[in-house]
Amino acid sequence: MAPTLALVGATGAVGTVMIDIINGKESVPWGEIRLIASARSAGKKITVRGEELTVVALSPEAFDGVDVAMFDVPDEISAEWAPVAAARGAVAVDNSGAFRMDDEVPLVVPEVNADQVGARPKGIIANPNCTTLSMMAALGALHHEFELTELVVASYQAVSGAGKEGVDRLYAELNAVAGKPLGVKAGDVRAELESAGLPIADSPFPAPLAFNVVPSAGSYKGDGWYSEELKVRNESRKILGIPGLKVSATCVRVPVVTTHSLAVHATFAREVTVEAAHKVFGAQQSVVLVDDPERNVFPTPAEVVGADPTYVGRIRQALDFPNTLDFFVCGDNLRKGAALNTYEIAEKLAPEFA
Q1: For a tag on the chain, would you pick the N or C end, based on fewer CB atoms within 10 A?
Q2: Rounded Cα gap, residues 302 and 295, in angstroms
């Protein structure tokens, strides 16, 4: 008998992408797909693989008979309900940050550490943060060959990483300043936004995004660090199984709607070359190599949005650092960075229940 899959948060931004991914598959291993959301979304009709399904309200009984439950909801909802799903017999695959650093919950990227899906004493598997995920398929492949020892990352993060509020704010700012002669003196953009009724105090970001970049992502955690930067450090260590990995990250919000980009500086224990890296990336099904600098061919977020793979380019030997590569990575933060990786974990689990 084919297993049953549930999607909690089916009507949300990531849940909608999840349904698009499921609908785009040639085949799926599920006998039943159940859509779960808040009480206010219950009763909505959504077509999944040609069948009109009715969204049911989140409740303990909603998980009866479910084998795998994917959670695409805020941290506090996952923290309360993922254990409920597990107690009712489902494996909870959680896309929030509620369980990522729990020692009894594996943090999984199927290309890197699929063997961890069975090590789940709480019945929960965590999905990494979208920033970490955007580079992990490429970085994990290099680590398996050359043994990563140090990692320095600068991220250029799309506003959709901050949810619908972030996207709406960017569009509002762009509409407010479009065609205006800005940038003549400091504060022009901020002043224009204020006059348009868009004070920074009402923004999810601490500075203007239009015609700007903001070196702040997530919440401030003290000592100069923001939460997104600490996630890159802690999650990379856990996924790769390197507790002492040296990591430093600077996370920057940029005026891009979807797709995170990262400049990666990675040092390895063994000698690595550009040619060897090309060979490693070329062998990965989920990595696309776009690297011809003489012809200005490299990945950009505008050309990667909507795609499932990780795109890698600008690969070069670090001039003053032995055994070190610098490269540029782009990954759609709503697909591989959230929905797709969650679904790929679920598919890894499906044979257990077939």
Answers
A1: N
A2: 18
Extract the residue ranges of the chain whose pLDDT is less than 50.
none
Verdict on whether the full-model pTM lies above 0.90: yes
Tokens found for residue 348: 């890894």
Q: Is 265 a catalytic residue?
A: no
DSSP 16: H
Based on the residue annotation, tell me whether 130 is a catalytic residue of this protein.
Answer: yes
pLDDT at 188: 86
Among 143, 251, 260, 330, the one annotated catalytic: 260
d(C-alpha 216, C-alpha 285), whole Å: 33
Beta-strand (E) ranges in 269-343?
287-289, 310-317, 324-331
Query: For residue 252, which phi and psi values (nearest 5 degrees)?
Result: -125, 130
Binding residues for phosphate: 100
pLDDT of residue 186: 66
- For residues 133 and 187, what is the distance between their CA atoms, to the nearest angstrom? 35
